[in-house]
Amino acid sequence: MLYIKCIFGGVKKTMTRSEENYIKSIYHLDKVESAMVSTNAIAEEMQTKPSSVTDMVKKLSEKGMVNHKRYKGVSLTEIGRKAALSIIRKHRLWEVFLVEKLDFAWDEVHEVAEQLEHIKSDALIEKLDAHLGFPRVDPHGDPIPSKDGEFKKVIKKLLSEVEIGAEGVCVGVKDSSTPFLKFLDKNKIAINDYIKTIEKEEFDGSLYIEVNGRKVHISNQIASNLYLEIKEAE
Amino acid sequence: MLYIKCIFGGVKKTMTRSEENYIKSIYHLDKVESAMVSTNAIAEEMQTKPSSVTDMVKKLSEKGMVNHKRYKGVSLTEIGRKAALSIIRKHRLWEVFLVEKLDFAWDEVHEVAEQLEHIKSDALIEKLDAHLGFPRVDPHGDPIPSKDGEFKKVIKKLLSEVEIGAEGVCVGVKDSSTPFLKFLDKNKIAINDYIKTIEKEEFDGSLYIEVNGRKVHISNQIASNLYLEIKEAE
DNA sequence: ACATATTTTTAGATTAGTCTAAATATTTAT
DNA sequence: ATAAATATTTAGACTAATCTAAAAATATGT
């Protein structure tokens, strides 16, 4: 009775690093093709052999993290999904840290974040989240799940397409080429910055905006490569 | 020939987490009693059985990290010592991060730092060091080894005992009781802060100091519980 | 100095995560 | 529908890190 309660209540299972990586892979594959995930696909994603996958899937199934019928593929249980999102949350928060605080380039952070995501400490990740100002998205523009495993539904629009007066958090770039990212860097515009639109120059479509309170003038080309998060009400 | 060069040149051996922990334990034990380190002592420190230690010592010995003669105890080689200091450097830098940036209490950081110290990325640790302003000591006042495995020799004096006009980095506390630490917190005096002595009030020994440019008046009791790093020349 | 106690090592087993090779189930193509 | 191709699982083995129990070396006390 108590046991049942523990499992379905909020008690965390301690997962090994390998288990965590499998769960994460299964989550990502599940997203792409929303059917059952195949053994081979997991093996491919994890860079292991299918037989290793079968073993691990058996283990995860016994732990209640995945559903599995022999020869029929795998899907995450609710517990497994929560676990995956917890790891993804850590990964993405660490990526924000690496880029915003340690000045890594956005395309240099993945490998290190793959290690950092396995650090076990709830206090750490909550304090990190606060330290970073509760960012909505990681440096690639991917949304950061909340503590309890939900994504805030992010509705994003190109800056060039919002009406004047609209404001919101910059949640992504359309063009992720190096020159464009360098431009943003030079002009101190970064993902998760708060942007207000002030005025549009009609004849060339350029925009006067405020980035974290600082006034900036950007061309239409720039504006049409930046995504703004739009609030529900808008 | 090339092989030899590689070993003695700066080529890093990839160490497992367990190997790193053994090397660190041996380093700490070596510090305390500067003779050979015993198998039992390592087992005690690592919370394992002596037979496990024998196995690991054999492995580390083959990798050239420790010297070992059967039944005679263990000592670190130069390579092993460097490896130990590299791990300690990471541990202590992470501790500074946790306390200064994430607001952990100084006595809450050890467990998490034990995990973070094993993250493998040179770029990460150098960028972290810069982000933290190249701290000299960790939140416990222990010195942080440099990148190449040296300690900057820290000569420390109680703030109450330096002559007026002296300045330096606050590198430790004598009293580490909670009330004292709370006091420091409230008065925004922290380890690694830069402190200048301005004037001493003769009749009660209280001190006027500057902490990172901000003027503060502290009693003699406070001054006699804070350590300042004194430059060679002084 | 020698018997006893302690320390260290060896031998053999265990677990997690992986592998290869073989067996079995499912899917696909004719 | 059935043979061939593909996917999945099982069986058995390997490595790293650990353990227990027994053997061997060293240290200690009278």
Number of E-type strands of chain A: 8
The chain-level structural class of chain A is alpha+beta
Radius of gyration of chain A: 21 Å
CATH-level-4 superfamily name of the domain at 155-230 in chain A: Ferrous iron transport protein A (FeoA)
Kindly state the mean pLDDT of chain A as a whole number? 90
Give the overall silhouette of chain A. elongated
Which CATH-level-2 architecture of the domain at 155-230 in chain A?
A: Roll
Task: Give a short synopsis of this structure.
Two copies of one chain form a homodimer. The first copy, chain A, has 234 residues and is of the alpha+beta class.
For the structure shown, list the relevant keywords.
234 residues, alpha+beta, Arc Repressor Mutant, subunit A, SH3 type barrels, 8 strands, disordered N terminus, DNA-binding
